[in-house]
Every structure is written in structure tokens, then in C-alpha cells.
């Protein structure tokens, strides 16, 4: 017969002690009280911002389409609706490109925002891919059609350079996003999609900045302000102002999320992380032992 050895009850050892970590091993830090409760609190402002962006994008998309769906450009120009007066006397090709640009940009504005949601990407990966392809097609169509209507823009040469640069950056960032996901670089794809949507969101910030710049002029405009002059003065700065701040915010978000940041120069040699240093510290002695 075998004696039964008395068993000692096992107890929870508790969190690992960082001071007793063996050399070459990565010590773990005990969780701080309440750390798990802080994560939902941090996500709440992000969700509110996401909802606000979605409502703004949807509103501008609906306003843009509904405005130009109410009649011909000549009829809309008589009512001083939108930018119809700038294109009412243009050739049919330019007028058609204007409608294509409005439709494609409105679709990209609405379809692009869900692509940035990690939750939606996890829950519906197939829908994410299908919607992403449609979004990038809309970006390409919107950028190409904007180049056709560019010479007739209301801001003159400033508009040609500002909106022209926006068009090339728009389609260029979309192309980089597509190439990144095709080679399996998910992090770079996410970063370029964020940049692309920041440029897409220029449709919203264009109208926002126009309204702000008109309002700034009102105190000095006198009792009977010239609405057309106020608009032209405000619109002169919009071709660059509608997208440059968006790009700055996008780069800040990219760096905050730890995604590949855009660099004009060659990337420096990446430094090893603590985990990689620990791995090297374990592998090198073993390799020397078998040499």
C-alpha cells in the first residue's frame, strides 16, 4: 500500500513581484486598482466624437445632394443656391462632372467613417472589405471629377492650387491605403485610410470654415453688409484651410494610436523593444553553448 501524502491547499500567489524577476525575463507589473474601470471612461469621449463626426458627415452629404437635385444649374443660380452660379454657364462636360463630384464625394463622406471603427471591422470583416472598395472607388471618381471642374472654381488661382493639391493627395492617400492592405500591412493601411478620410472630411470643414470666416467679418461690415463680398473674402482662404488642419489632426491621431507615421526622410533604424532585448538575452547564451 502506498501512503497518501498530505496535500497542502494551494493559494493564489497574487500579482508578480517586479523585484524578483530573473535576469533576462520580463517582469510583470501588478494591476492598479480601478485600472479596468478607466478604459470605458476613456472610450466614452471617443464614441461621442465618432457620433458627432458621423452626424456632420451625414448632414453635409444630404444637404449637398438635396441642394443640387432641386433643379438645373441655371435655375439654382437664379436662386443663388450653392455654387451653381459658378458653373451655370460652363459646358455640359463640366456641369456633368460637378454632379458626379457631388455624388461621389457625398458617398465617400458617409461610407468612409465606418471604415475607421475597429468594432465594425471586427464584427463585419466582409462588409468592411466591400464597403472599403466602394469607398476607394468613390474617392477616385470624386478626385478625378474635381480636376474637371477645377478651372471654374469660385476662388480663382488659389482654388486651383488648393483644391488641386487636395485632389492629388486624396487619390494618392487612397492608393497608398489600397497598396498597403494588398501586401498585408494592416497598420499602414489603417494609417493611410485615416489620412484619406481626413481629406474626405474637407467637404464638412470647407463649409464650417466658410461660415466662421463670414461671421468674423460681420462686426466690421456695417449695417448693410454685401453678402457676396463677404463670401468671396471668406472663400479665398478655404481651398487650403478646408484640408490642412484635417491632415494635422490625422497625423496626431496616427501617432497616438501607434500607427506608422508619415516621414519625409528615410526611417531610422528601429530600436528593439524590451521584449526583443529579453529574447536576445536568452537566445545568445544558448547559441554560445551549442557553438
From TrEMBL:
Keywords: Membrane, Transmembrane, Transmembrane helix. It holds the Pfam family DUF2306. Residues 1-41 are annotated as: Disordered. Residues 7-18, 29-38 have a biased composition (Low complexity). InterPro entries: DUF2306_membrane. It comes from the Bacteria. The chain crosses the membrane at residues 48-69, 98-118, 130-150, 156-175, 196-218, 230-254. The keyword Transmembrane helix applies. This is DUF2306 domain-containing protein.
Amino acid at each position: 500500500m502506498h501512503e497518501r501524502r498530505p496535500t497542502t491547499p494551494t493559494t493564489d500567489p497574487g500579482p508578480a513581484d517586479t523585484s524578483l524577476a530573473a535576469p533576462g525575463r520580463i517582469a510583470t507589473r501588478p494591476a492598479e486598482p480601478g485600472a479596468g474601470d478607466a478604459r470605458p471612461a476613456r472610450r466614452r469621449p471617443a464614441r461621442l466624437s465618432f457620433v458627432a463626426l458621423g452626424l456632420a458627415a451625414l448632414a453635409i452629404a444630404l444637404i449637398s445632394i438635396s441642394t443640387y437635385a432641386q433643379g438645373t444649374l441655371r435655375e439654382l443660380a437664379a436662386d443663388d443656391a450653392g455654387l451653381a452660379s459658378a458653373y451655370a454657364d460652363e459646358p455640359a462636360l463640366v456641369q456633368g462632372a460637378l454632379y458626379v463630384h457631388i455624388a461621389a464625394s457625398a458617398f465617400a463622406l458617409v461610407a468612409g467613417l465606418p471604415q475607421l471603427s475597429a468594432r465594425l471591422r471586427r464584427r463585419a470583416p466582409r462588409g468592411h472589405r466591400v464597403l472599403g472598395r466602394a469607398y476607394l472607388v468613390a474617392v477616385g471618381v470624386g478626385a478625378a471629377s474635381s480636376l474637371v471642374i477645377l478651372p471654374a472654381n469660385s476662388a480663382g488661382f488659389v482654388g486651383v492650387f488648393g483644391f488641386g493639391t487636395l485632389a492629388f493627395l486624396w487619390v494618392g492617400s487612397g492608393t497608398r491605403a489600397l497598396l498597403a492592405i494588398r501586401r498585408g500591412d494592416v497598420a499602414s493601411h489603417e494609417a493611410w485610410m485615416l489620412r484619406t478620410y481626413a481629406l474626405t472630411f474637407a467637404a464638412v470643414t470647407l463649409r464650417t470654415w466658410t461660415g466662421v470666416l463670414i461671421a468674423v467679418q460681420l462686426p466690421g461690415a456695417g449695417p448693410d453688409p454685401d453678402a457676396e463680398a463677404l463670401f468671396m473674402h471668406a472663400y479665398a482662404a478655404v481651398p487650403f484651410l478646408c484640408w490642412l488642419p484635417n491632415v494635422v489632426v490625422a497625423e496626431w491621431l496616427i501617432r497616438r494610436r501607434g500607427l506608422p507615421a508619415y516621414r519625409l526622410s528615410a526611417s531610422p533604424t528601429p530600436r528593439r523593444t524590451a521584449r526583443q532585448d529579453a529574447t536576445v538575452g536568452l537566445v545568445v547564451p544558448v547559441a554560445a553553448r551549442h557553438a
